[in-house]
Structures are given as structure tokens and as C-alpha cells.
Specification:
- The longest helix is centred in the first third of the chain and has 30 residues.
- The protein has 2 domains: about 280 residues, Aldehyde Dehydrogenase, Chain A, domain 1, CATH 3.40.605.10; about 190 residues, Aldehyde Dehydrogenase, Chain A, domain 2.
- By secondary structure, the chain is an alpha/beta fold.
- It is globular, with a radius of gyration of 24 Å.
- α1 packs parallel to α6, α2 runs antiparallel to α3 and α2 packs antiparallel against α5.
- About 40% of the residues lie in helices and about 25% in strands.
- The strands form 6 sheets. The protein has a 7-stranded mixed sheet with strand order 16-18-19-14-13-20-21, sandwiched between helices. A 6-stranded mixed sheet has the order 10-9-8-11-12-22, with helices on both faces. It has a 3-stranded mixed sheet with strand order 1-5-4, covered by helices on one side.
- The chain binds nicotinamide-adenine-dinucleotide.
Length: about 500
């Protein structure tokens, strides 16, 4: 059946670059396979060259002065029109996202819902947040304005391609910046559809899109006309980017990896089935491929055995592995082969060190399972506190559960990580808040974790090697402006400076 967006169900989707308002057909393109069935090609995206990246940056630089001077009301109206169109197209977007990514349909719908919530929050808040301040005081007058930064290079990862691109597009454009976006080759299609629909509502050059790997990324992070980099991805990649951007001292927001812990206090009720289900979801939503998933669980020794028993019960109930398009499925395939092999390697390593690996959940379609990048979710018991499965970010469907003896020990175990993105504490609220206050992380949730506790009205980001700066919330808008102070002192000639 022909679809309104030109997308034919189950036919390959063709993504293009967008440079200065034009769709650009690149010389080379790459295929994106369906991770649930890699023999099926979901679509194609261009392999853009460095020259095309430069053209996109130059288009953004040319569009910037005019766009920066557009009234905020007009910017908001354009963005709101784009959101309305995206909402109408949501059923098609989420199907394409599930096909190329592997996440279950409900999960794609959740990603779109978070994207819309954030874009609308930014539309509602931007005028108030960027309102200039005029202060009359005893030494004259001071005007503080919030000026756009300039051309922003936005680089996004594969795990939440739409949410982690719109998290950058909305505040950047609303604040008067222009942008070149580069999504990940592991999920380039649905985000291209979304970016095209947004770009169409703005003047040419305001929002550009290029595809490709590190080569294009390097251009976006070194070009002198790029003023800011908004990057979400791995900590290793961010180290290259920081070095690349040093030459021209670019502004940066970096949202990076995490090894988020869930700390389960003795006061946690292991018989609370809803809470246990939330914990399981905190570990396995999006097949464990979320920066803010709980990737290690520390449980107080006094409740450890009963916790594990009840956790397995809850996991076996919630985890149903299979096709993203089967409405009974909660966990899809891993997004790509390299990630699958990395997670398998971590599990094999844990086993070789003597840990016990317990399979969780049910496989709904064994034939499909054998074809795709599927991995049955597992729980790892008996790992050492410093084994790779515990200290590395696994980013996949496996989780180590470890005992602890007292608060001091678990806080130390938590904080010795090089990461500090999110975390969660489970149990009596007051005790949990007491522990949370001592945790080094950007966010700590109480009795929930990961996307379940996300609130786009509040800032999100990491400490230590989990990142620099914040997205979401008022800070997520402010990170796209420079504070500009205009002083009009009444005392023009200072008495202590000699004539
Ligand atoms: P990645 O670092 O491999 O890739 C991210 C993006 O950077 C991709 O678009 C990639 O093509 C691009 N890139 C690669 N090399 C580059 C270079 N030299 N210069 C510029 N760009 C370059 O990350 P990934 O595998 O796509 O995503 C998974 C990682 O992202 C995990 O570590 C996860 O924790 C992290 N993540 C963090 C957050 C957060 O908000 N903190 C959210 C989601 C994912």
C-alpha cells in the first residue's frame, strides 16, 4: 500500500542528505538491514563525503545571521507546525524505526512520545528562558541577552536516534542557531524522515542533514565555522571529538556512556511485584541498549536470595523476545552484529571467570530468533565486583546482580566507576534519598529507573566521563546560547585610574 510519506510498506526507504533545503543524492549509499532479519534491507542512506559535509556547514553558516534575527514567536510557530506534522506521521515513523532499529513498536512509540514532549516543552519555554534581562542599579544599567551560538554540529547515536536528535534540533533552532545533523549509520532512516519533515518548515540552510561515519564526523567537529558540538554517543568517540574541537575551542555538550547502578536497600519489598517489574524493565527496556539503563544491580545481602528468586519470576513474566511487530514482544533483537558480539563476549568472559549465567524470559519465535541479532536476556550471578561485565558498559540484554553488606561499601562501589550518568536507589524513600545524596551521578531515581523515571522538564546529563553539560530542562535550552552582557555604567571615569 502506498503511504502518504512516500513510504511503501516493507519496501526499502531511501534517505537523502539535506543541504540548504535540497535533498542531495550522494554518489554512494549504504544499506541498513533489519536486525530481526538481516537478509531484509530496510532502506538506504547516503555515504556523504567530507566535501558534502563542508557544503552543509557553509549552508548553515550562511543561513545563520538571518535566522538568528528571526522573532522567537516565528521560530516557535515553525517548530510547532513541524511537531504537528510529525504527530500525524507518527504511525509510519514508528514502524520504520522498529524495522531498522529492532526495538518493539511500543518502544518506538515511547521514543516518539518523549521526543514530542521535549519539543513542545522547548516551544513553551524558550521565550521565557531567553527573555533578555534589563537591570537598573546604582552604577548604571545592565542588559543581559542570550545570543545564539552559531552553527551547531549535532551527532547522534543509534539507540534513540529520534529522541537524541530532536533533543538537539528543537532548542538549537528555537534559540536562533542553525544546524548540521549527522545520525548514526546503525539507525539512519526514521531520523532522516523526521529531520526532513522538520527542515521543510524552516528556511533553507537552517537544518541540514548529512550521513556517514567518522570522516564526516571529523569535518563536523573541526570545521572553523562550527561553533558548537552537541554529541551523544560513546565516551571513546567523545575523546576524539574533544581533541578535534580543541583547535578552534568549540562549545560542547557531550552526553556519553554510563554504567548506571541500581542499589537495592534492605528495606526494599521483594514481594512488591510492580516494583520488581520496574526493576526488570530498568535492565531490559530497548534490549538493554539505553545509556540510562541500570547496568549493574547491588542488592543488600540480607535480602539477596529472595530478591534473586523474585527477580527471576518477574523477568520470566515480562521478557518476551521476538519480532518488534509482534504486540506480545517486549524485547527485540540487538541493533547490530558488532554490539551483539560485544555483549556475547562479556557474558562468555564472566562465565569463564566462574560466574553463573541464568537465561530469562521466553523466545516467542525460535525461527526468527535464529535468523536475527537476537540474544536471550540473562542475569549474571557470582561475578566479581571488578569483572568486565560489572565495570564495562555492556549496552545489551544482560545484567550482573551482586550482594553488598553496608551503605558505605555500596556507595564506594558505585562511585569508583569512571562513569556517572544516572543511578537508582530502591527501598524506603527516606533511606533511599539519604543514599542518593552521596551518589556521583547526573540523575538518581528512587524506586524506578531509566526511561520510566525520565522527566524532560528537568536537566539530564552525566558527571565524570559520562559527559559535559546538560540536555532537557531549562539548561537544555540555555546550552544553545551565549550570555551577552551590555553594560551602560553611569560612572564612566574610574577615580582610581590616574589622569
Ligand atoms: P558512538 O560513539 O559509536 O557513535 C555516536 C555517533 O558518533 C555516531 O553518529 C557516529 O557515526 C559518530 N562518530 C563516530 N566517530 C566519530 C568521530 N571521530 N567524530 C565525530 N563523530 C563520530 O556511539 P553509539 O554506539 O552510536 O551509541 C552508544 C553509546 O552512546 C553508548 O556508550 C551510550 O551510553 C551512549 N549514549 C549516551 C546517551 C546520553 O544521553 N548520555 C544517550 C544514548 C547513548
Amino acid at each position: 500500500m502506498e503511504r502518504r510519506l512516500g513510504l511503501v510498506a516493507n519496501e526499502p526507504f531511501i534517505a537523502y542528505a539535506i543541504i540548504n533545503g535540497e535533498q542531495v543524492r550522494a554518489e554512494k549509499r549504504f544499506a541498513r538491514e533489519n536486525p530481526a532479519n538481516p537478509a531484509e534491507i530496510v532502506g538506504y542512506a547516503p555515504v556523504n563525503t567530507r566535501e558534502e559535509a563542508v557544503r552543509a556547514i557553509e549552508a548553515a553558516a550562511e543561513a545563520f545571521p538571518k535566522w538568528a534575527n528571526t522573532a522567537i514567536d516565528e521560530r516557535v510557530q515553525r517548530m510547532q507546525r513541524a511537531i504537528d506534522k510529525l504527530k500525524e506521521a507518527a504511525p509510519e515513523i514508528k514502524r520504520l524505526l522498529s524495522r531498522e532499529h529492532g526495538k518493539a513498536l511500543y518502544d518506538s512509540e515511547g521514543e516518539l512520545a518523549v521526543s514530542f514532549m521535549w519539543m513542545e516543552f522547548a516551544c513553551r519555554m524558550v521565550k521565557e528562558v531567553l527573555q533578555e534581562k534589563v537591570k537598573q542599579h546604582e552604577r548604571g544599567k545592565t542588559i543581559i541577552t542570550y545570543d545564539p551560538v552559531g552553527v551547531v554540529s549535532a551527532i547522534s547515536p543509534w539507540n534513540y536516534p529520534i529522541a537524541l536528535s530532536t533533543i538537539k534540533i528543537a532548542p538549537a533552532l528555537l534559540a536562533g542557531n542553525t544546524m548540521v545533523l549527522k545520525p548514526s549509520p546503525y539507525a539512519p532512516l526514521a531520523v532522516s524522515m523526521v529531520t526532513k519533515m522538520i527542515a521543510d518548515e524552516f528556511p533553507p540552510g537552517v537544518l541540514n542533514l548529512v550521513h556517514g561515519e567518522a570522516e564526516v564526523g571529523v569535518e563536523l567537529t573541526t570545521h572553523p565555522k562550527v561553533a558548537k558540538i552537541a554529541f551523544t554517543g560513546g565516551t571513546k568517540t567523545a575523546k576524539h571529538i574533544m581533541k578535534a574541537a580543541a583547535e578552534t575551542i568549540k562549545k560542547m555538550t557531550l552526553e556519553l556512556g554510563g554504567n548506571d547502578a541500581a542499589i537495592v536497600l534492605p528495606s526494599f519489598d521483594v514481594y512488591d511485584a510492580r516494583a520488581m517489574r520496574r526493576l526488570v524493565i530498568s535492565n531490559f527496556l530497548t534490549t538493554g541498549q539505553i545509556c540510562m539503563i541500570a547496568k549493574r544491580v547491588y542488592v543488600h545481602r540480607s535480602i539477596f536470595d529472595s530478591f534473586v528468586e523474585k527477580y527471576i519470576e518477574a523477568a520470566n513474566q515480562w521478557i518476551r523476545v521476538g519480532s518488534p511487530f509482534n504486540p506480545d514482544v517486549t524485547v527485540g533483537p540487538v541493533n547490530n552484529k558488532a554490539q551483539l558480539e560485544y555483549v556475547q563476549g562479556l557474558i562468555a568472559d564472566a562465565e569463564s571467570r566462574g560466574a553463573k549465567v541464568i537465561k530469562l524470559g521466553r523466545i516467542l519465535d525460535p525461527d526468527l530468533f535464529a535468523k536475527g541479532y537476537f540474544l536471550q536476556p540473562t542475569l549474571v550471578l557470582g561475578a566479581d565486583y571488578h569483572d568486565p561485565i560489572v565495570v564495562e558498559e555492556q549496552f545489551g540484554p544482560t545484567v550482573p546482580i551482586l550482594p553488598f553488606d553496608d551503605e558505605e561499601q555500596v556507595i564506594a562501589l558505585h562511585n569508583e566507576s569512571i562513569y556517572g550518568l544516572t543511578s537508582s536507589v530502591w527501598g524506603d524513600e527516606e533511606e533511599a534519598i539519604r543514599v542518593a545524596r552521596r551518589i556521583e551521578a547526573g540523575t538518581t531515581m528512587i524506586n524506578t529507573a531509566a526511561v520510566q523515571g525520565l522527566d524532560v522538564r528537568f536537566p539530564f546529563g552525566g558527571v565524570k566521563q559520562s559527559g559535559v553539560g546538560r540536555e532537557y530542562g531549562v539548561e537544555g535550552i540555555m546550552s544553545y546560547v551565549e550570555t551577552h552582557v551590555i553594560h551602560v555604567p553611569t560612572e564612566l571615569d574610574l577615580p582610581y585610574i590616574p589622569e
